[in-house]
Design a protein that fits this description.
Keywords: ATP-binding, Nucleotide-binding, Transport. It comes from Chitinophaga nivalis. GO terms for molecular function: ATP binding. InterPro entries: AAA+_ATPase (IPR003593), ABC_transporter-like_ATP-bd (IPR003439), ABC_transporter-like_CS (IPR017871), ABC_transpr_LolD-like (IPR015854), MacB-like_ATP-bd (IPR017911), P-loop_NTPase (IPR027417). The protein is an alpha/beta fold and 212 residues long. The protein has a single domain (16-207), classed as P-loop containing nucleotide triphosphate hydrolases (Rossmann fold), CATH 3.40.50.300. It is 35% helix and 17% strand. The chain has helices at residues 27-34, 57-67, 83-93, 98-111, 127-139, 157-174; strands spanning 16-20, 46-47, 50-51, 68-72, 145-149, 177-181, 193-198, 201-207. The strands form two sheets. It has a six-stranded mixed sheet. Strands 2-3 form a two-stranded antiparallel sheet. Helix 3 (83-93) crosses helix 4 and helix 3 runs parallel beside helix 5 (127-139).
């Protein structure tokens, strides 16, 4: 039985698009397909004129690493590495030069307010700080789009609000594109567009004007 049914969306550069709906509506499945973590049984996924559904396993992994960033609810930081090292890992995998990688990682962490936490391991960071490290890691390869699955789901209201504002700042300063699955009633209305899903379909695509 198909989970998604006739879903067709287009996201422009510099947009924050949130996907909302009740549990089981297909939000995370859609996000995972858009992020190439899952393979659709039909249809196509395109990013920058590249048909991602036509790439082989190794080609897809390389494209994903270079062009798509991910933020998850539970951070998924490696506990044995520092904040700085965690951020650097995707860029090292991409084969980028170590000095350039470290410079960009430090820039991102300082931009996100973690200048004094570079050498701290995840267990020495608060939940909000860990999520900011995860955001920096998602941005390290300068991705075309960042996919976020319930990024504020494990944060208290203050840290969630700070993360919301951070997404807006990154959109405004870096023209960063975000696609965000969320249940957060504060975050969703702040997006440029809010997609409402029900039973595997998009039943509403509402443009917002609150942050123009």
């Amino acid at each position: 039985m198909p989970i998604l049914k006739g879903v067709d969306i287009t996201v422009s550069k510099g947009e924050i698009v949130t996907i909302v709906g009740s549990s089981g509506a297909g939000k995370s499945t859609l996000l995972h397909i858009l992020g190439t973590l899952d393979t659709p049984s039909g249809g196509e996924v395109w990013l920058n004129d590249v048909n991602l559904t036509g790439l082989s396993g190794n080609e897809l992994a390389d494209f994903r690493n270079r062009h798509i960033g991910f933020i998850f609810q539970f951070h998924h930081l490696l506990p044995e590495f520092t904040a700085l090292e965690n951020v650097c890992i995707p860029a090292y995998i991409a084969g980028n030069r170590q000095r350039q990688v470290k410079e960009r990682a430090i820039f991102l962490l300082e931009t996100l307010g973690l200048k004094e936490r570079l050498e701290h391991k995840p267990n020495a960071l608060s939940g909000g700080e860990q999520q900011r490290v995860a955001v920096a890691r998602a941005l390290i390869n300068n991705p075309d789009v960042v996919m976020a699955d319930e990024p504020t789901g494990n944060l208290d209201s203050r840290n969630a609000r700070e993360l919301h504002n951070l997404f807006l700042e990154l959109r405004d300063k870096l023209q960063q594109t975000f696609i965000i699955v969320t249940h957060n009633e504060e975050l969703a209305p702040l997006s440029n567009r809010q997609l409402v899903m029900k039973d595997g379909r998009i039943i509403a695509d509402a443009g917002q004007s609150l942050i123009q």
